[in-house]
Design brief:
With 214 residues, this protein is α/β, with parallel strands linked by helices. It has one domain: Rossmann fold (3-Layer(aba) Sandwich), CATH 3.40.50.170. Helices cover 34% and strands 22% of the residues. It contains six helices and nine strands; from the N terminus they run E-H-E-H-E-H-E-H-E-H-E-E-H-E-E. The strands form two sheets. A seven-stranded mixed sheet has the order 3-2-1-4-5-6-7, sandwiched between helices. The protein has a two-stranded antiparallel ribbon with strand order 8-9. The structure holds 5-O-phosphono-beta-D-ribofuranosylamine.
Length: 214
């Protein structure tokens, strides 16, 4: 499976994907990493893995749709089959969503549908919830609203700050994002309306590459 990653920042989820590919727990090729930020550390992480790293300047296009058409061109150029958003801070338009229907994933640092949008960890703390976590979902129109593939939950501690909570959630993000991608690579995901069905791995040729199916 050829993955294209869109990232705007530090790229720790991208790194988790790269590490999983290198450890062979994710059976995929990182075909290209694209960023809307020239200085995104994610681009450097891609280069270190030997993956083409492409900066596309949003200022050179008239609007979001035109920008997404430029991205689409690059994704096709690198034969990308699945797009993974990893800290990508731009809204994806119908141009990409229709071209890659049910083939764009995102990771979000809350238990969706709670706390979509920016600063999800702060939203959770401000609300006073006792459990939070992260969600991998397919991208549809609507912010963080697509069908859910995988979630991990963790307790919020009395002494948690936005930073400590974000750090603990991140550990779970790095675990479940490569797992969700591997499920896709194994063709075990089917989208039925809002629901993502996960087929059991019945391959007679040994276990799934997933470290754990829990
Ligand atoms: C992560 O918390 C992710 O859930 C959110 O943006 C952050 C990106 O971090 N969508 P990184 O760039 O992957 O380190």
């Amino acid at each position: 499976m050829r993955i294209g990653v869109l990232a705007s920042g530090r790229g720790s989820n991208l790194q988790a994907i790269i590490d999983a590919i290198e450890k062979r727990t994710l059976d995929a090729i990182l075909a290209v990493v694209i960023s809307n930020k020239a200085e995104a550390p994610a681009l450097e992480r891609a280069r270190s893995h030997g993956t083409p790293a492409v900066f596309l300047d949003p200022k050179t296009t008239a609007d979001r749709e035109a920008y997404d058409r430029v991205i689409l061109e690059q994704l096709r150029r690198y034969d990308v089959e699945l797009v993974a958003l990893a800290g990508y801070m731009k809204i994806v338009t119908s141009v990409l969503i229709e071209a890659y229907a049910n083939r764009i994933m995102n990771i979000h640092p809350s238990l969706l549908p709670a706390f979509p949008g920016l600063a999800a960890q702060k939203q959770a703390l401000d609300w006073g919830v006792k459990v939070s976590g992260c969600t991998v979902h397919f991208v549809t129109e609507g912010i963080d609203a697509g069908p859910i593939i995988r979630q991990a939950a963790l307790p919020i501690l009395e002494e948690d700050t936005e930073e400590t909570l974000a750090a603990r959630i991140l550990v779970e993000e790095h675990r479940i994002y490569p797992q969700a991608l591997q499920l896709f690579a194994e063709k075990r995901l089917t989208v039925e309306g809002r629901k993502v069905r996960i087929r059991e791995n019945k391959s007679p040729h040994g276990a799934s590459l997933l470290a754990s199916d829990s």
